[in-house]
């Protein structure tokens, strides 16, 4: 039985699948982990976890009862990003990995680099202004704040490239991930921008650039012993999880928008032109010849998990009570900026706000308001993308949050968008397996519509349109009206955390 393996390293867990050549999932495995938040605005992870969990997951997959006789044709890798994991010459991390835009520590570096290079030039070269998502600014933070660690660093990794390195010995990074190491990548010429690499990442060896579905190398004998995957098995380069998720549902062609429901919410609009707007991220696509306009909420599933832990109720209870609360959450309105916000407001000092609370409100109202807050954030992103010229004709939903119909319906009602839900929504691990299958199939490469057909369509409820428009207007005004006070609180929060942090 010819199969491929796909493994994705996510924010809260690592997931793996063993998939047949026809797209059937033969086995699955998950390893949960946590991020570290040593200071307000810091989100990091021990990078050694990524390989350890990969090994454990692959051994689970190959030992599954239905995997007997499986012939692993190729391996797909994927991971959250853009992350910055710097390692020394022996590939030992010099410090924990700094995660993507939810980590907002590099504010000073962003301001300095923007002043030194200029907004127009940064946008011309890399496509995007510098934000908390910019990998290059995170590298600069390490150089500025932890010079001893930076002095030891030789190589730059993200989760997918870390796995590829351990499996094959290749030092590679895909173009899509590289385009998010702003301002180090030249998006039009699809190469590292040498002057700024030397200025802000000097001393680091540049990884070889390839596309996500291209073969990075073959499993080494050492990696074969560790994982059980036969030596010589091809391994793709892989890419950031949101882009691999888009691949998993076929939402990576011009006119497509992928909406990922996860710990954070992510949106990717695909086209053939390089669209630039300061509110969103302009990146290379997963495949040659494509460009993306992308955005992301800093919290979505993380916010619902917070409410679950806070109230002690389980998800079925909260969903039932949120359903009963009804559209508008009985007069509650929430800003979901509990970890700052990425797009389109690009405000690391934004904070969560719950407006309209009374003694009559219950946890179901709060949960409903949280779901509506994420949907309002999605609408804000979509409207910003369209204003920048994105041609959005097809919306595909993916990720763990698609298992709950209420959340999907709320998003369609508030955005006015029809969402397609495919048969398999587990996301990036499945997309990585698909990319791996295509890399070794030649002219017989599989079609994602055959692997993963659409099984449900979510239509917006027409009678909720007026209320949704009113909610969105209030949502935008609530942020503007509370921003000054919230920013003052954010400054106090950072000072308080610093004062009690261990030496």
Task: Give the tags.
disordered C terminus, 503 residues, FGGY_Carb_Kinase, globular, 40% helix, Nucleotidyltransferase, domain 5, 5-stranded mixed sheet, alpha+beta, 17 helices, EC 2.7.1.17, kinase, 24 strands, D-xylulokinase activity, Xylulokinase
* Strand fraction: 15-25%
What structural class should be given to the helix and strand makeup? alpha+beta
Whole-number total of structural domains: 2
- The name CATH uses for the topology of the largest domain is Nucleotidyltransferase, domain 5
Strands of the biggest beta sheet: in what spatial order? 3-2-1-5-15
Helix content: 25-40%
Oligomer: single chain
Which residue ranges are poorly predicted, with pLDDT under 50 across at least 5 consecutive positions?
A: 498-503
CATH superfamily of the largest domain: ATPase, nucleotide binding domain
What's the CATH class label of the largest domain? Alpha Beta
Helix tally? 17
Query: What is the gyration radius calculated from CA atoms?
Result: 22 Å
Q: Major sheet, described briefly?
A: 5 strands, mixed
- Examine the secondary-structure arrangement and name the CATH architecture of the largest domain: 2-Layer Sandwich
| Overall shape | globular
Q: For the terminal residues, how far apart are their CA atoms? A: 55 Å
Number of E-state strands: 24
Keywords: Carbohydrate metabolism, Kinase, Transferase, Xylose metabolism
Enzyme class: transferase
Pfam families: FGGY_C, FGGY_N
Organism: Microbacterium pseudoresistens
